[in-house]
Amino acid sequence: xxxxxxxxxxxxxxxxxxxxxxxxxxxxxxxxxxxxxxxxxxxxxxxxxxxxxxxxxxxxxxxxxxxxxxxxxxxxxxxxxxxxxxxxxxxxxxxxxxxxxxxxxxxxxxxxxxxxxxxxxxxxxxxxxxxxxxxxxxxxxxxxxxxxxxxxxxxxxxxxxxxxxxxxxxxxxxxxxxxxxxxxxxxxxxxxxxxxxxxxxxxxxxxxxxxxxxxxxxxxxxxxxxxxxxxxxxxxxxxxxxxxxxxxxxxxxxxxxxxxxxxxxxxxxxxxxxxxxxxxxxxxxxxxxxxxxxxxxxxxxxxxxxxxxxxxxxxxxxxxxxxxxxxxxxxxxxxxxxxxxxxxxxxxx
Length: 349
Prior knowledge:
Blueprint: H1 9-17, H2 26-46, E1 56-60, E2 66-68, H3 69-83, E3 88-93, E4 100-101, E5 111-119, E6 130-138, H4 149-152, E7 159-167, E8 171-176, E9 181-187, E10 192-197, E11 208-210, H5 221-232, E12 242-243, H6 249-259, E13 262-265, H7 278-291, E14 295-297, E15 317-320, H8 322-348
Parallel strand pairs: 3-5, 11-12, 11-13
Antiparallel strand pairs: 1-2, 3-4, 5-6, 6-7, 7-8, 8-9, 9-10, 13-15, 14-15
Helix pairs in contact: 1-2, 2-3, 5-8
C-alpha cells in the first residue's frame, strides 16, 4: 500500500482526536511520545552489530529468561520517554516483576501503560524482525493518586488503544483505538512515521498457519487433528495451508494481518496455561486483530474477556482470520466433548 501523501502519525492522531469535542489533546500527546520512543529504539536496532548492543547483560528477567542488552535498552527508553509526559499514573513491563510507579516529582495522569519492550528478543543477534508491543487503559483508581495494581489488571475489552512497532526491513508502527487499524512506516530520510496502511483489514480466511511444530508431541489431540487437517485440505488455489513461523510474535501476527491466516501458541503438556503474557502480548494483539476484522481466542474463550489475576499471567493464543480461528475452536471443543463423554461413560460403568 502506497503512503497516503505526507500524513504523519502526529497529524493523523490530532485530526482523529479533533473529531471528538471532549478531547483534551492528552491522548494524542501520549501516542506521540510512544512514536518518539519507537524512533529511538529503531535507531539502536539498526545499529546492532556496529555498537556494543548485541549479546546478553548477564541478568535474567522475571520469567527466568536471559536478558539481552537491546531488551534492556528498549525497556529503559520507554520508561524515560513516557514517565515525563504526565499522561500515566502507572506502568508495567514484561521485564519487571511489579508495577512501575511514576516518580514523585512528575505529574500523574489518567492513563495506564503496559508494554513488552522488545518482543522476539531471541532473534536479536541473528538480525531477524523483532518488535515492541503496547497497551493503554484508563485508570480505575482515584485521579491524582499514584496508580495501583488494580489499574493494570483490567480486561482487554477496557483498552483504549493498543499497538506494536515492527523493526524489520522497514520500521512500522501499527495502532488502533478500537475502530480501525492504521499502519505508519518510518521514513528514515526525515525521521517521521508516515501513513502507509489505512484501515487495515485482515482477510476472513487465510492459507498460512504459524506455530512451533517442534512441540508437536506435547499438543492436545484436537490441535494435532486441526494441523493435520490444514496440511491435507486444499484451498482455492489447490494447495494445502503453508507453514510460516518466525518466532517473533509481532512479525508473525503482522504477516497474517496483511495476508490472512492463523498464529497459534497453545497450552501443552509442558505449559498448561501457555507461554504468552495476557497483559503484554495477548490483549494488545487481540485488540488490533479484532479491530481489523479478525478473531482472538484462548481456544475456547475470547481473549479480551479474560479477567486477569496477575501481571504476568500467561494464556494460550489462537489469533488471526475469523474463519481459521473459528475452525480451530471447533476442533478443540470436539476434543472437550469427547473427553467429557468418555469420563461420563467410565463413571456409569
